Amino acid sequence: MAELGQEYDVIGPTELEEIKEALANKDLATAVREIQDYFEQQDRVELNIAVTGESGSGKSTFVNAFRGLEDEDEGSAPTGVVETTMEPKAYLHPEHVNVKVWDLPGIGTPNFKADKYLEQVGFQRYDFFVIVSSERFRECHVQLANEINKMKKKFYFIRSKIDCSISAESRKKSFNKEKTLNDIRDDCIRGLESIGVTSPDVFLISCFDLGSYDFSPLQETMNKSLPQFKKHLLMLALPNITLQINKKKKKELEADIWRVALISTAVAAVPDSDLSICVDILILVAVLIKYYRAFNLDEQSLQNLAERSGKPLKELKAVLKSPLHEEISQHVVKKLLSRKDNKTYIKYWLSKIPILGLLTAGPWSFVVVYRMLKTCLNELAEDAQNVIMAAFQSPV
Ligand SMILES: Nc1nc2c(ncn2[C@@H]2O[C@H](COP(=O)(O)OP(=O)(O)OP(=O)(O)O)[C@@H](O)[C@H]2O)c(=O)[nH]1
Ligand SMILES: [Mg+2]
């Protein structure tokens, strides 16, 4: 489709199948109702992450970093050098309130009993556990891991404060960062194996530098074991700190574009008087705000990133290009929709999905919305990518 010019105007085979399936053998009203149900389910789903480990291992710091917060930001979990967390406490994600990160009390006190502990913290409510250790893994971690296994829940081991370990080792003349990281990882794995954990995965993390070390593999592993809607929610809520996460967020959001285009053009019965197309603008405003939040492009997130990376906010903002940074309103969305479109696109779409010709709003409306969302998503993802590079200087 060389005449279409841009790669994102072409529908991929998976997407094409999904659209055909959604519209096959049913009337449009039923297809739209099913897509609306899909979005309602997506909005309702909750993710509960339990963070546990010995006192002082960095649990609360992880709870904050995972939500893109610094320890002293509003809404952050208290951290410190003396024991601070005594009761399980849920911390909501600032932009995705359905993601709750639970800061659990410390384990490993002399009378620690893993089964009692899990009862006390209400283990049923969690989708998975993160077990944090700032040193070697000990008997209490394994007791806990075994008990979590018995309860048919998932857990991930984190070796925290890696920045401290690296900085201590770097004083040696023979220091080699990669080797040090491998040694720490191997030591943790051996330690866990020696106390009965088979093929353990260990993730080396510094909460003061979450984008480095093993945060990417950790999020990938977490994602794999979650059902579809929870996976989507986790992906959007992750702090947008690596180029890899940025890319995955884009892919996650991209997958729903045809659904949004279809319902926004199917539920609007009357053409918008300012536009020649039939479209529900409010749906589009909500979706663009969702993109914005997922890429952490709002003022507060940029401010947090500036503090975390030590770069001036102005420098991060200087790389933003999308017109959506001014404001996301009905007016702005109308302006984006009124861009002139080439008839070739409509022909292309109809050749792929002839049923679009039967839409009340017509294939025109669908295609205009689809293209507008793709363009905005591409622009915002690119801005977010440039922000990451500006914050951390080089590609992560
Ligand atoms: N250098 C470094 N320090 C860390 C890291 N994570 C946590 N800390 C520090 O370790 C100390 C303890 O961290 P917390 O997050 O309060 O530990 P906790 O596990 O919640 O402790 P309790 O609530 O008492 O069980 C704090 O001074 C943190 O700043 C890290 O990744 N790197
Ligand atoms: Mg704590």
UniProtKB/TrEMBL annotation:
GO molecular function: GTP binding; hydrolase activity
IRG-type G domain residues: 45-225
One of the Pfam families matching this protein, by short name: IIGP
Keyword Phosphoprotein: no
PROSITE patterns: G_IRG (PS51716)
Taxonomy, superkingdom: Eukaryota
Gene Ontology cellular-component annotations: membrane
Family annotation (SUPFAM superfamilies): P-loop containing nucleoside triphosphate hydrolases
Alphabetically ordered keywords of this record: GTP-binding, Hydrolase, Nucleotide-binding
PANTHER family: INTERFERON-INDUCIBLE GTPASE (PTHR32341), INTERFERON-INDUCIBLE GTPASE 5 (PTHR32341:SF10)
Assigned protein family: Belongs to the TRAFAC class dynamin-like GTPase superfamily. IRG family.
The protein's name in its UniProt record: Interferon-inducible GTPase 5-like
UniProt organism field: Chanos chanos (Milkfish)
Taxon lineage: Eukaryota, Metazoa, Chordata, Craniata, Vertebrata
Gene giving rise to this polypeptide: LOC115829679
